[in-house]
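TA notes. Do not distribute before section.
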Amino acid sequence: MIPKLRRIKISSVQELKNWLAKNSKLEQEVMIVTCNKQSRDKHVSSDQVRDALSANGWTAGQSYTLDGNLVGHVASHN
């Protein structure tokens, strides 16, 4: 079952890094939503998400396939 978390849709690694920098004090879990490989121009890989989260003091949790071409990555702040 997919958890009901605040969803943050991003379409580039830089967009994710910007969001993480602006939300460094956020203590609740969120779901980072990315496009899968079929959306090449907006695809951010799971490894890229985990690396960006880790570099900014966040922990990556479970990933989920969402509707359409979307992937959700649970993230929590350390």
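Switch to the second chain here.
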Amino acid sequence: MMSTATQLVTLAGIIPGAKPTQIPGMSDTVSQLLGYALWGLVLAGVGGTGFGVYKLAVSDKSRHGGGSEPFKWMGGGIVAIVLAGSLITILNGIAG
């Protein structure tokens, strides 16, 4: 059964409705927080990538513009998504 705070956050659409897989030998609270933290990292990566695409679209295209900044945002976002995705996969493999 979900706590009231978890239900409110899930209903608000901040955290996806995914239920993290419990890892054997780990307490329920820690396992749940770890799962939601990884989903939060995925969402942050998506936000960073989207912001990089936005900055690329509105950036100054002249020779004197800061052309590498959007790619830093997009790269950081993609790295966050890949890192969180691989950690989710590893933890789901452990939980079996």
